């Protein structure tokens, strides 16, 4: 396995890019440690697949360097990077048995037969497909085909990294949870460096130890799933992660505080005086409560989602979502919204502009 370093990486599909908007990847500097589980998360078109193809060698970057264990591989072709890749659609040989599909990457590298058999059976046991080894791959269900495709990526022990490009896209929703759990278990057992590319926050947050969130060719935050949820560094992260996403509300900053509709709103900590720009308050629905005092609002609608209710209220013209577990108001009622101070953050030009007070509850 390998530590992966991306240094000053930029890429454009234009021959002569002139502005930042001409770049699909604007500038990427990133280190992935050996043996970690990582996710690239972002909407379609944000650059994550371009980045994956550059790491694998399927595409050369316009600028910058790629290093595996501090050794430059930027100019190496894919077959010399020792990378295994699992795609959206299972890449297997339908005419072969499951055993032969798993054995193929090893036989192709002329691994001794007894070692091939040992490794194939180890991977088959991990994937829980031992009873399918003699079956032709053509007859497998889509989820089992994807299991075999994953196994082909994991069967080699000489790979630098295993990369998954939205591998659960074609899997039925009720089977996705099972395969996500299996993939996490496989990582814990083989400790390979794994990079998982997806637009699905659930897949990213349940698989990865560290998530890289991308927007419009840039990395806007790198962190654990808890980091991304509890303390978004950018309003996009707050919007994109969570259901519903973070409330982002225009505010006025004066006298060292933040004001909405003329009312002072307590923040998590001090405002960063070095930042300027459009000012907004970010607060997740989980930390919005209803009370006798607070910001006045009118309930627009209430959704029962099983474990709790999502209350959508209008505060002036601003929509605010709150997650409430009991004593739910009816549409049309006037309520008062209370924001948990330790989770109320100020953003300037979409970037976090407050510092949490030491010892404050998150």
UniProtKB/TrEMBL annotation:
Q: Name one Pfam family in it.
A: OB_MalK
PROSITE patterns this protein is in? ABC_TRANSPORTER_2
InterPro entries in UniProt: AAA+_ATPase, ABC_transporter-like_ATP-bd, ABC_transpr_FbpC, ABC_transpr_MalK/UgpC-like, Mo/tungstate-bd_C_term_dom, NA-bd_OB-fold, OB_MalK-like, P-loop_NTPase
Task: Report the SUPFAM superfamilies cross-referenced here.
Answer: MOP-like, P-loop containing nucleoside triphosphate hydrolases
Stated membrane topology is: Peripheral membrane protein
Chief location category: membrane
Where is this gene product found? Answer: Cell inner membrane
Q: Which residues form the ABC transporter domain?
A: 4-241
Domain of life of the native organism? Bacteria
Q: Which Gene3D superfamilies match?
A: 2.40.50.100, Nucleic acid-binding proteins, P-loop containing nucleotide triphosphate hydrolases
Q: Does the keyword Zinc-finger apply?
A: no
Keywords, sorted A to Z: ATP-binding, Cell membrane, Membrane, Nucleotide-binding, Plasmid, Transport
A Gene Ontology cellular-component term:
ATP-binding cassette (ABC) transporter complex, substrate-binding subunit-containing
The GO terms this record gives for MF are:
ABC-type ferric iron transporter activity; ATP binding; ATP hydrolysis activity
Instruction: Spell out the CDD domains in the cross-references.
Output: ABC_Carb_Solutes_like
Q: Which family does the UniProt entry place this protein in?
A: Belongs to the ABC transporter superfamily.
Q: What is this protein called?
A: Phosphonates import ATP-binding protein PhnC
């Amino acid at each position: 396995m390998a530590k992966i370093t991306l240094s000053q990486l930029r890429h454009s599909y234009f021959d002569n890019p002139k502005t930042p908007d001409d770049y699909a990847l604007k500038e990427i500097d990133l280190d992935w440690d050996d043996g970690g589980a990582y996710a690239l998360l972002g909407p379609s078109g944000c650059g994550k697949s371009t980045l994956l193809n550059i790491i694998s060698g399927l595409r050369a970057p316009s600028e910058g360097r790629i290093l595996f264990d501090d050794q430059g591989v930027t100019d190496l072709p894919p077959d010399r990077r020792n990378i295994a890749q699992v795609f959206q659609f299972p890449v297997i040989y339908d005419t072969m048995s499951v055993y032969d599909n798993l054995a193929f990457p090893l036989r192709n590298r002329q691994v001794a037969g007894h070692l091939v058999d040992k490794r194939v059976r180890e991977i088959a046991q991990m994937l829980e497909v031992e009873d399918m080894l003699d079956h032709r791959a053509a007859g497998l269900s889509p989820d089992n085909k994807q299991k075999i495709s994953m196994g082909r990526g994991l069967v080699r022990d000489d790979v630098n990294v295993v990369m998954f490009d939205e591998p659960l896209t074609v899997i039925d929703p009720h089977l996705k949870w099972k395969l996500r759990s299996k993939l996490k278990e496989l990582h814990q057992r083989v400790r390979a460096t794994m990079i998982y590319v997806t637009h699905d926050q659930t897949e990213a947050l349940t698989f990865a130890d560290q998530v890289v969130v991308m927007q419009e060719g840039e990395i806007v935050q790198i962190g654990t799933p808890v980091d991304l949820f509890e303390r978004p560094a950018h309003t996009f992260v707050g919007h994109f992660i969570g259901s519903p996403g973070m409330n982002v509300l225009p505010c006025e900053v004066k006298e060292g505080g933040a004001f909405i509709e003329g009312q002072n709103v307590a923040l998590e900590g001090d405002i960063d005086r070095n930042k300027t720009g459009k000012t907004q308050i970010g607060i997740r629905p989980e930390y919005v409560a209803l009370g006798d005092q607070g910001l006045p609002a009118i309930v627009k609608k209430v959704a029962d989602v099983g474990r709790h209710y999502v209350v959508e209220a209008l505060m002036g013209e601003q929509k605010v979502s709150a997650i409430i577990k009991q004593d739910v108001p009816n549409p049309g009622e006037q309520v008062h919204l209370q924001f948990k101070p330790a989770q109320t953050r100020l953003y300037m030009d979409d970037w976090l502009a407050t510092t949490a007070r030491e010892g404050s509850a998150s």
